[in-house]
Amino acid sequence: MAEPQPVTDEILTVHRFSRDGADFVVRCPHCKDVIGIEGPVRGSQYQHRYVGRPGAGCRGWLDVSYDAKLVEEV
User: DSSP H helical segments within the chain, as ranges?
Assistant: First the structure.
């Protein structure tokens, strides 16, 4: 089965992130799901997909800005 195509090829910028225990989370700017990410957070790019679940996630790309704020809730 072929991988689903991303919602858009555009890399959207995220300006806020939060902690969930020892992990970091952001809200995907494409589909609005809250997703876990690995650090270093600021200045990094991520693709929204779920490891171990082929085809899950919107597959959109996001970039956490260098000046992104750590907030209590995204």
Answer: none
